[in-house]
Design goal:
The complex is a heterodimer. Chain A is an alpha/beta fold. Helices cover 37% and strands 18% of the residues of chain A. Helix content of chain B is 42%, strand content 8%. Chain B is built from 12 helices and 7 strands. Classes of the chains: A alpha/beta, B alpha/beta. The structure holds thiamine diphosphate and magnesium ion. Thiamine diphosphate (TPP) sits at the interface of chains B and A.
Chain lengths: 327, 362
């Protein structure tokens, strides 16, 4: 084991896969000479050269499509979006081309491609640069959607994503890039589609992913002091959704709260709650609850922004609600 | 086979634009009174106005940079320092009722349109009386009463919007023209090409202004565009283009006038490429490893639009250097007042978090 940042873990996964498989290459805005707008691709141009680490113009629709075309020929593109906000330019290629081609071709043509970059809120960058696209992509059959929290998962899941035969949307978080964690030495491949119980507990299940996990862990620590033993689940994969792990947890705790940065309406939390209600109704001792970002475009002013974000205090409060206790 | 003309609506029928000399530091020796005036071809009061307006933008942006460093402004903040001649020259060519739209580097465009600096700064400070009530921030400012339509954070997205504004101007049978700004990086976005095609196809009253400041973030133009003459990017749609010295406010104004006349006269879109330069980083955290300090220094010394106009004013005897210092002091005081006024505004109201998502009462 060694301690590295999430940023380094992502870089290492890309570098190791590029060493292992010459069909893997990276393309995107500022990925080569600038080494990534968030410095994620540090050292890659130097090691792999400009044919495999490709700076693109600011043309997301175009280069996402170029990536899909290259994948049709068996290359394994890693397409970096400077942030997922800008992938809105390219969402047609991701959904209509990448996600559906295997199906439309009756299985003749698969697309091994990874779309990755920072997703979610960032500090005070306002409505057009601060939003969570988890639910958007989790909606789409044909995509796998991954959102790691810690460095080990960032590396293990990205490695798995690059090796996966199908398109993977890999949602990183700018506010996690600098966080460090223990990562196994050498090759580390995690399994896509599996949630993880980060903290076992008896009284209530708190489920989140990506940066939400840190909010939820803080909330669990606070709840522990107040006598509530929360189980924390890191979903890691938004599609497929690891229903078995969720349902198993609810069978033990009988209560569940989901936490996400995105908007409440048709969010990932809605899917979690629907799953639990439909498949574990009898196990529930309280209505499942969601904590989410406010139902509003992200405001700029810091004190308004704080009102639009899910906070660990809110998670604590809602956990008390479903436990019928008061904090 | 005859070589066909590159475009249907050629540039030949346009009045020739004056080719202003680029003044270098070396050529700054005193010139006889009047010579520079002929070179810039403008009466003294015009040059004084241009100088004052550009200096206001510069001092305001410098102060905004300081406020950012002090932690009073957050998020992304893109300064306009170095590019002042473009906004000021174009504004002088534009009618107040001509709509303007640009990207996130928008503080200067707001102010030249007539917004009070304190409202712009108030927005950056997250104040209730900032132009967007603290909801938009640096990149998202609008002033529809003064025909300014933003302030947009997604590279290239404002170009179809400007084209739609022009569509509406034609639809309503007005004689107004939309001025749509974008960057050298933005010009490669697919939707820019789509917009160009519609503007030419429907003969829309629009002037596209590409502010070629040589870089899109850390990428130099020739690493992002297959051809570096960006004014030619409209050719395949029959949109005439012009390259303009964007560090010369008079050249900008004259090119702007010609293009606006062209569009106002029903001859359709034009594309102006303003050769300009940004002195500061792309946003506030930019290590600037993609260019040398010497490169920036050289432009500042040889092409700075404010110094250029100041030189002409002094050398032609319109004012002396001391008078310009007084002007600078006045402008600094004006900016300080704006900052003080902005700081005194109440913070954005938390009760407004959920307002303005839909029309009031709906
Ligand atoms: C669609 C989209 N992609 C990427 C970005 C990130 N980004 C912001 S500014 C910028 C560079 C734009 O350069 P240019 O058009 O030359 O304008 P300048 O900043 O030089 O004024 C990039 C890549 C964005 N905001 N929107
Ligand atoms: Mg630029």
């Amino acid at each position: 084991m060694r301690e590295i940042s999430v940023r380094e873990a992502i870089r290492d996964a890309m570098a190791e896969e590029m060493r292992r498989d010459e069909s893997v290459f990276l393309m995107g805005e500022e990925v080569a000479e600038y080494e990534g707008a968030y410095k994620v691709s540090q050292g890659l141009l130097k090691e792999f050269g400009p044919e495999r680490v490709v700076d693109t113009p600011i043309t997301e629709a175009g280069f996402a499509g170029v990536g899909v075309g290259a994948a049709m020929m068996g290359l394994r593109p890693i397409v970096e979006f400077m942030t997922w906000n800008f992938a809105m330019q390219a969402i047609d290629q991701i959904v209509n081309s990448a996600a559906k081609t295997r199906y439309m071709s009756g299985g003749l043509l698969g697309l091994p491609i990874v779309f990755r970059g920072p997703n979610g809120v960032a500090s005070q960058v306002a409505a057009q640069h601060s939003q969570d696209y988890g639910a958007w992509y989790a909606h789409v059959p044909g995509l796998k959607v991954v959102a790691p929290f810690d460095a080990a998962d960032a590396k293990g899941l990205l490695t798995a994503a690059i090796r996966d035969p199908d398109p993977v949307v890999f949602l990183e978080h700018e506010l996690l890039y600098g966080e460090s964690g223990q990562v196994p030495d050498g090759e580390h491949v995690a399994e896509l589609g599996r949630a993880r119980v980060v903290r076992p507990g008896r009284d209530v299940t708190l489920v989140s992913w990506s940066r939400g996990v840190s909010l939820v862990l803080d909330a669990a620590a606070e709840l522990a002091e107040q006598g509530i033993d929360a189980e924390v689940i890191d979903l890691r994969s938004l599609r497929p959704l690891d229903r078995a792990t969720l349902l198993g947890s609810v069978q033990r705790t009988h209560r569940i709260v989901s936490v996400e940065e995105g908007w409440p309406s048709c969010g990932v939390g809605a899917e979690i709650v629907a799953t639990v209600v439909a498949e574990a109704f009898d196990a529930l001792d309280a209505p499942p609850q969601r904590v989410s970002g406010a139902d509003v475009p992200m405001p700029y002013a810091a004190h308004l922004e704080a009102l639009a974000l899910p906070l660990s205090e809110t998670v604590v409060r809602v956990a008390h609600e479903v436990c019928y206790t008061d904090g | 086979m005859a070589v066909s003309k590159p475009m249907e609506r050629g540039t030949e029928d346009l009045p020739a634009l004056p080719n202003l000399e680029v003044r270098s530091a070396a050529s700054r020796e005193p010139k006889p009174n009047g010579r520079e005036r002929t070179a810039l071809g403008q009466p003294p009061e015009v040059l004084l106005d241009i100088h004052r307006r550009m200096l206001l933008l510069r001092r305001m942006e410098e102060r905004i940079g300081q406020l950012y460093a002090m932690g009073e402004i957050g998020g992304f903040c893109h300064l306009y320092i170095g590019q002042e001649a473009v906004a000021v020259g174009m504004e002088r060519a534009t009618r107040p009722d001509d709509p303007v739209i640009t990207a996130y580097r928008c503080h200067a465009h707001m102010v030249v349109r007539g917004a009070a600096p304190e409202q712009v700064i108030g927005e950056l400070l997250g104040k209730a009386r900032g132009v967007s009530q603290g909801k938009g921030g640096s990149m998202h400012m609008f002033d529809p009463a003064r025909n300014f339509y933003g302030g947009h954070g997604i590279v290239g997205a404002q170009v179809p919007l400007g084209t739609g504004i022009a569509f509406a101007l034609k639809y309503r049978k007005t004689d107004r023209v939309c001025v749509t700004y974008f960057g050298d990086g933005a010009i490669s976005q697919g939707q820019v090409a789509e917009a160009f095609n519609m503007a030419a196809l429907w003969n829309l009253p629009i002037v596209y202004v590409v502010e070629n400041n040589q870089y899109g973030m850390g990428t130099a133009v020739d690493r992002a565009s297959a051809i570096s003459e960006l004014h030619r990017r409209g050719e395949s749609f029959g949109i005439p283009g012009r390259e303009v010295d964007g560090m010369d406010p008079v050249a900008v104004e004259q090119a702007g006038q010609a293009a606006l006349e062209h569009a106002r006269g029903g001859q359709g879109p034009m594309l102006l490429e303003m050769k300009t330069y940004r002195y500061r980083g792309h946003s506030m955290s930019d290590p600037a490893l993609y260019r040398s300090r010497e490169e920036v220094q050289k432009v500042r010394e040889e092409r700075d639009p404010i110094a250029r106009v100041a030189d002409v004013l002094v050398q032609s005897g319109v004012v002396d250097a001391d008078r310009l210092k007084v002007v600078d002091r006045e402008i600094r005081a004006q900016v300080m007042e704006a900052v003080t006024a902005a700081q005194a505004m109440p913070d954005a109201n938390p009760a407004e978090l959920l307002s303005d998502i839909y029309a009031a009462g709906s």
